[in-house]
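User: Please fill in residues for this 638-position structure.
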């Protein structure tokens, strides 16, 4: 299995693999993973989105195949999807089958895609970019109808696989493409693309509405504004178009992360391969000698995608950085991810111009050269990145760490110092040839890798953090009274510490149970005051920090559940629904008569946002099918 580290934590081991493992287990049980208790004291995993709960591709791959084979199959399918979309796009533009194939190979099998293999949900969304361009090309040349419907369907998949940012970026890029391809119909094409975007939003409402709810519950909008301008492509990294490791290779420890801006290797790579670049250079030389040659509308449009996406990837390093202050680009977290469009369009452009370079040759000679180029490109990419990724044996990585024998089914952990231990294997020394050390540092059960082994973890690794969790998440590892009180209140039974370089299990005897009641109530006005109370020297775990004005009377009691407070949770005392209150900053609590036993109280996660989204998505898919059947197909429809 693929286990390549990232800087700090591993986006495959601590994020993508655990989420897909949960999805796989849930689908095989006929369940939808709306919520998980395995991380963050309870977390709305579906709403966060990157698990890709509602992607039809994920349903097939992770619903039918076992892990970790399903994860590998999903990665392979990314390249197949990108290849097929690029091929059909080039055929639509007018290239021959063989030249369309070489263009597709350039676009799909690139250095950028290779190094991004640790980010499955990103690659899955990127793989639909050629398809989106394909149906944009079709709607440019055809009337309203199926191309618009297909464009909406494809854009929806970008959202549903788990990375909505690609949808936003794609709409912007597709408008550029259609405008450059056919200036005279730019308004009509803009309306068609807008219609496709609306269709995508409606189809993916089942994901978007819960996501919007999570965004409202988090500090995402305010924190994103602080992050936004630290993630552009450094100008010097334009040189990676010629060689990916020109500034060093993180695998062997020669790449330095200590630089200005956003010096993360895999986010700043403009490397399609040396063969496509040589193809472009040869064409430029030939064109210079033979005189000016006109470009077709499609060629201009592909070139425009490359140039515009590259400028946008540079972010604040160009005047175009001002665009990221305007919605929807203002929601962009990492500008350099526009490089996905740059790399794909550069590969397509190389194929388009290769056809012009070989135009004077006979069909047989042209065929031999193209086949040779395809094999050379694949070989060159494989050879260049042969030692980049780290692979581990399934049975070694997926076996429970030895120290888990000290835990039980009721244990809840936090992991300290994992990032420091991991970084020693990654940023400073590289990971090439160090699989055993990377495995050792990775299997400290840091969030979210604990999910793989079905052990609860108070920490969480995600892009969206609900405010009530975000308030104290940075304090849970502290050695002061606040850190200890948080661990006690939220039921942390064991601390997994690796600060010494060895993994140690420290038992926490003060952990509160999952359900408890107390008559010690401390009323507060807001979460800030609640955090101050929890940091107070006289705070004792078991006290209920209470924000609501509703107080229990002498015949009632407060029952606290050690689970994150979040919209959508319902409580019942027998068959009677009762209100769920936030307590202790991020726990659920109810007020019940003193005579009600704890066993009579049940909690259920039944979010209205999911129900509304489901209804909109169901209605939209029904309407999509009806419109699809009603419209007549074009004679050359893909």
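Assistant: Residues filled in for all 638 positions:
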């Amino acid at each position: 299995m693929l286990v390549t580290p990232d800087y700090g934590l591993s986006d495959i081991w601590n994020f993508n693999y655990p989420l897909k493992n949960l999805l796989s287990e849930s689908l095989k049980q006929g369940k939808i993973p709306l919520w998980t208790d395995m991380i963050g004291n309870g977390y709305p995993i579906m709403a966060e989105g990157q698990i890709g709960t509602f992607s039809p591709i994920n349903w097939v791959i992770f619903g039918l195949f076992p892990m970790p084979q399903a994860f590998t199959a999903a990665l392979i399918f990314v390249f197949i999807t990108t290849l097929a979309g690029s091929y059909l796009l080039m055929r639509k533009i007018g290239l021959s089958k063989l030249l369309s194939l070489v263009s597709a190979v350039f676009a799909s099998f690139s250095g950028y895609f290779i190094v991004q293999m640790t980010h499955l949900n990103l690659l899955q969304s990127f793989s639909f970019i050629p398809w989106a361009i394909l149906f944009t090309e079709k709607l440019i040349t055809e009337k309203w109808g199926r191309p618009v419907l297909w464009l909406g369907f494809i854009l929806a998949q970008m959202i549903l696989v788990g990375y909505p940012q690609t949808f936003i970026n794609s709409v912007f890029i597709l408008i550029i493409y259609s405008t450059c391809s056919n200036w005279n119909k730019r308004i009509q094409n803009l309306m068609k693309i807008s219609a496709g975007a609306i269709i995508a939003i409606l189809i993916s409402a089942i994901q978007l509405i819960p996501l919007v709810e999570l965004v409202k519950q988090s500090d995402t909008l305010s924190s994103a504004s602080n992050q936004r301008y630290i993630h552009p492509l450094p100008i010097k990294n334009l040189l990676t178009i010629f060689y990916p490791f020109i500034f060093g290779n993180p695998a062997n420890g020669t790449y330095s992360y200590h630089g200005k801006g956003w010096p993360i290797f895999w986010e700043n790579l403009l490397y399609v391969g040396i063969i496509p670049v040589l193809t472009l250079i040869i064409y430029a030389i030939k064109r210079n000698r033979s005189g000016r040659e006109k470009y077709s509308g499609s060629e201009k449009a592909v070139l425009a995608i490359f140039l515009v996406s590259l400028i946008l990837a540079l972010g604040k390093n160009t005047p175009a950085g001002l665009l990221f202050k305007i919605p929807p680009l203002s929601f962009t977290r990492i500008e350099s991810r526009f490089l996905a469009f740059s790399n794909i369009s550069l590969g397509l452009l190389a194929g388009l111009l290769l056809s012009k370079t070989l135009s004077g040759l006979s069909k047989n000679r042209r065929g031999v050269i193209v086949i040779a180029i395809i094999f050379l490109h694949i070989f060159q990419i494989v050879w260049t990145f042969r030692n980049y990724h780290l692979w581990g044996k399934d049975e070694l990585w997926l076996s429970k760490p030895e120290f888990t024998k000290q835990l039980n089914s009721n244990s809840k952990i936090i992991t300290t110092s994992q990032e420091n231990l991991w970084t020693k294997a990654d940023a400073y020394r590289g990971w090439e040839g160090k699989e055993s050390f990377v495995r050792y540092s990775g299997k400290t059960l840091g969030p979210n890798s604990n999910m793989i082994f079905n052990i609860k973890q108070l920490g969480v690794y995600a892009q969206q953090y609900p405010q009530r969790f975000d308030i104290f998440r940075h304090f849970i590892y502290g050695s002061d009274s606040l850190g200890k009180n948080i661990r006690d209140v939220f039921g942390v039974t064991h601390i997994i510490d690796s600060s010494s370089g060895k993994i140690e299990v420290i038992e926490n005897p003060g952990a509160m149970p999952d359900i408890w009641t107390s008559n010690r109530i401390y009323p507060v006005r807001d979460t800030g005051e609640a955090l101050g109370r929890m940091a107070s020297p006289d705070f004792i775990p078991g006290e209920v920090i209470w924000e609501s004005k509703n107080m229990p009377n002498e015949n009632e009691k407060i029952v606290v559940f050690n689970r994150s407070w979040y919209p959508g949770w319902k409580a019942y005392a027998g068959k009677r629904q009762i209100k769920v209150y936030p307590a202790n900053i991020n726990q659920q609590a109810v007020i019940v008569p003193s005579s009600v036993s704890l066993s009579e109280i049940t909690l259920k996660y039944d979010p209205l946002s999911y129900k509304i989204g489901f209804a909109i998505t169901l209605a939209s898919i029904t309407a999509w099918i009806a419109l699809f059947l009603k419209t007549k197909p074009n004679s050359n429809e893909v």
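For context: The chain has a mean pLDDT of 91.
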